[in-house]
Amino acid sequence: MTESDTLSTRDLGDGIVELQLGRGPVNALSADFLMDFADLITRLGSDDAVRAIILTSPFKVFSAGLDLKEAQGFDLEQQHAIVQGLNEGFLALYACPKPVVASVAGAAIAGGLFFVLASDRRVAMSKSSFGLAEVRVGADFPVGPLEIAKASLDSDSQRRLMLTGQPIGPIAARNFGFIDIIAEDREDLVAYSLSEARKLAELPAMAYASIKQQLRGEVITKIKASIASGGNAPEGGWFNSETKEAMQRMLDQG
Predict the structure, then answer these.
(1) Does position 104 have pLDDT exceeding 60, yes or no?
(2) Is residue 52 part of a domain?
């Protein structure tokens, strides 16, 4: 069933639902897209008929993060809106009580990588790439993505990804511990992702949700507290004096 122009769900049977990210051509993140995603993943998480969720993208790029050309023109209100979207969209995914499998064909870069890091199992195609390019575009991390990265990546992975901004391939991502399975092609990607979702869907749902809360509850509480104290509207905005020039430099580099 279609949920919006950019997000859709499909029943795969046995309580497994595919949630497709469909904001073409590269699932660039916008405030509305992220807030719609938060609403949808929250609804799926509270639906007793849903046993597991698979996140997919029909595009060659899984998600490229912010549209830098668009973001260069953000005023203060728009900066606050996108910070709110990043915080609340990825918090909703990270806190979802249902098992979530990220099925990644293509690049997941900057904000787009948090669809992967906030999921429970991660399957990637051999041509995928992963990166946290925020430092290269002159922006730090809103509290939601920051705390999810700190909880999901070890210190060496944080250093490699967050302090260089350079992408890595799927083998390195598996070595860093945030990719579980590498598929050679899209057919294998679909099969492996569905297999992982079925395994998770067979687990006792109440125990799964409770253990997930035990593991992630402290981080979730910290993010919620920061949001409540103004984390969605950083004073002076999200960008600093270097950001727009850095974004343009990234665009020029292609």
Answers:
(1) yes
(2) yes
How many domains, in total, are found in the chain?
1
Task: Look up the pTM and report it.
Answer: 0.97
Q: What is the pLDDT of residues 45-60, one digit of tens each?
A: 999 999 999 999 999 9
Torsion of CA 99, 102, 103, 107, to 10 degrees: 180
User: What are the tens digits of pLDDT across the range 67-83?
Assistant: 999 999 999 999 999 99
Is residue 200 pLDDT above 70, yes or no? yes
Any domain includes 142: yes
- The pairs formed by 184-189 with CB atoms below 8 angstroms and a separation of 24 or more are 184/125, 184/126, 185/125, 185/126, 186/105, 186/125, 188/125, 189/103, 189/104, 189/105, 189/123, 189/124, 189/125
